[in-house]
Design goal:
5 strands; 4 helices; single chain; alpha+beta; 17% strand; globular
Length: 156
């Protein structure tokens, strides 16, 4: 089992600055709160999912019934539901996917954008790919995946 990584204040501040870069009208305090909430929920989910590493091995454990949750869409859905409840005034959240329909390669994540912003200009939040250690970057700078907006996927 992987224990929740202790998040450094540096990483929280780094994400906060990236969130602020989405729009000049975003208050620093709201970006910082969102960053803290994202890292807090990621740590909570790491424990809740009883995460093992690497992520593909954890997927195997879920598939055979040893673990209940922890697939990539469990992460994105849980983050989405949690952040929507927070009712941020400056941000919106969107589900995205890569390699959709390819059983072993499909991957899902969450994107945060400025209110009214375009998904393509957002920030990818992906705690699955590094076994609970949050990956984040501008969507366009994520060379690992080609993300597609999934507005009709829904969130279970």
């Amino acid at each position: 089992m992987v224990t929740a990584p202790l998040v450094s204040e540096t990483k929280i501040a780094e994400l906060s600055l990236l969130l602020q870069s989405l729009d000049s009208t975003i208050p620093q305090s709201e970006a910082m709160q969102l960053s803290k909430d994202i890292f807090h929920k990621t740590e909570q989910l790491t424990e809740e999912f009883e995460l093992t590493s690497p992520p593909v091995f954890h997927n195997f454990l879920v598939t055979v019934g040893v673990r209940e949750k922890g697939l990539c869409y469990h992460w994105s859905d849980a983050l989405y539901a949690y952040l929507i409840e927070k009712k941020y005034t400056s941000f919106e959240f969107h589900l995205v996917g890569a390699n959709i329909g390819e059983y072993f390669y499909e991957h899902n994540a969450l994107v945060v954008v400025a209110k009214g912003g375009k998904v393509e200009e957002g920030i990818i939040l992906d705690p699955w790919r590094n076994s609970g250690k949050l990956y984040f970057s501008k969507l366009k700078n994520d060379s690992e995946y080609r993300w597609i907006h999934r507005p009709k996927r829904g969130c279970h």
